[in-house]
Amino acid sequence: MGYGPEIGGVVYLAVCAGILLSMMAYFASDLWDMGVGVARAAKGKRDPAARLAAQIFAASVPIAAAVFALPYIDFTFPPYSPTVIGWSAVGGGVVMLVLDRMSMTIKRLEHASFVDMIVVALSQLVAFLVPGVSRAGITMTFARALGYERVDAARFSLLLGIPAMAGWCLLQVLALAKAGSLVWQPWLIGVGAASFFAGLIMLAIMMAWLKRHSFAPFAIYRILLGGAVLAIVWRASP
User: What pLDDT, in 10s, does the model give residues 110-148?
Assistant: First the structure.
């Protein structure tokens, strides 16, 4: 049985949904604490988890507003060319490597201010607008530049990534529904499940690594990946 070209959109949606669920599962304890904290705050009790929830919400509003406003301001995205993607990956890797080594390590996520949260959240716009820039990579880099410990920089990035990924999934659903391409196939559950477990394993490995080591392997991976893309483009050029 053949499938039309629209199937690629729902496969991508299944992958995104699986990654979102893996992030929510890994940080289930944090999400639960924030939910309980908000309930406590509603009763007039101060709670640090409620403050974190408020910070994430406040930081997500401007990025969501900017993304949803783009179609109405006649914005033109940069071309999705291999050259742009390659240089973006190399540049992002170099910046992450340098800032990770040079930045101080003095803050925990519990010390985050609303300004820090908004600054890191807005950095996601660069990943949204520039092909080849990693959302997680740039937010972790900004968090490190602001002085957060490596594990907390990763938590910072990934907790902000949950509403960002949820919004992206919603945009995908709306776009596919508008195009009449929101089709369902039972095997999409398998795609989502594979994405979920792969994401969960990678999160566990990354967080365990960052407890004792630096972001260097992740930065070098970006540099090598971008370099490989640029090398292929150069060899293919007439």
Answer: 888 899 999 998 888 888 788 888 888 999 999 999 999
What separation in angstroms does the CA of 144 have from each of 16, 137, 230?
Answer: 26, 11, 28
Full-model pTM? 0.83
Question: Per residue in 53-88, pLDDT tens?
Answer: 999 999 888 888 877 776 677 666 666 788 888 899
Q: Give the three-class secondary structure for 128.
A: helix
CB-based burial of residue 227 (10 Å sphere; 0-12 exposed, 13-18 middle, 19+ buried)? middle
CA atoms within 13 A of residue 93's CA, in its CB half-sphere: 19
**What separation in angstroms does the CA of 170 have from each of 14, 73, 216?**
12, 21, 33
- Report the run of H or E that residue 62 belongs to, with start and end: helix 48-69
Tokens linked to 36? 């309980």
